Structure formats: structure tokens, C-alpha cells
Amino acid sequence: MRKKVLVFAMAAAVVMLLSGQLAAQTQESTPAPEVAPAQQATPVQEPSDLQVEVGAVAKDVVDRVPMEAGSSFPASVGKLFYFTKITGALQPTHVTHVWSFDGTERARVELEVNSPSWRTYSSKNIESHETGAWRVEVIDAAGNVLQTVNFEVTPS
How confident is the model at residue 156 (pLDDT cuts 50, 70, 90)? Predict the structure, then answer.
């Protein structure tokens, strides 16, 4: 019964809109930007809205909490995680973790942010010969760097 009432109400609204009876209500709204049929518009978060409240390189993430966070790790660690708590998202958006070793990008991981306070992480396998300076950057959907964290991997 509810479905029939809802369908009837929607049909009535369409008829009223087509007949011009709803024109006064819709004239003040901002027109939606045109999007090609094959494309889908992705909302872009204002750069000043998003913040990295917590950013940590860690040996693991358990129950959305970084474990054994630090700034120096032995090459035998095998895998490292970059945990971030993002705040200030006014709408669904994304951030990207960019992992770099000795100034060369090694991985780029796009992560969803779906609420005003969102915890997420990415990981990177560390090869035993990849000792030296590492960096992870957090980049918002508009390409702005929100945070940069430097760490090192030392010989085992």
C-alpha cells in the first residue's frame, strides 16, 4: 500500500512540475552542473575543511588503532601501515596516501572518507634492500597535501 501511495505522490509531483505548478518552488534552486551521461560527478571537498587529526606509521593496525607506531623501523619489518584519522569531511570524499622511498613514488592508495571523523589506513610491503628515507603524504581530492610524515627503514 505504501509503495502505491509513494508512486502516486511522485507521479502527481511530476504532472504538477510539467504543468508549471511547481515552477515557483524550483526557480530559486541552483541548477545542477551538466555532466556527460557516461560520467559521474564526484563532489570535491573544500581543501580547508579536511584535516589529518592523527597520522602514524605503524607495524600494524588492529581495530582501527595503529600498533607500534614510530619513525624508524628495521628492514625485517616486512610491511608497514600508514594510519590516518581524517576530520572535517562535510560530504563523502577521498584522500590518497602516497608512499615514497628515497624521493621516488612507490605506491599511491586512494581511500574513501565517508563521515566527519573517519579512520583509514594503507600498507606497503618493505623489501629488505629498501633501507633509507621514506615518506608518506596525505593528499585530498583537490590535490592538496594535508600531511607529510617522514620515517626511515634501517638495515636489520
Answer: confident
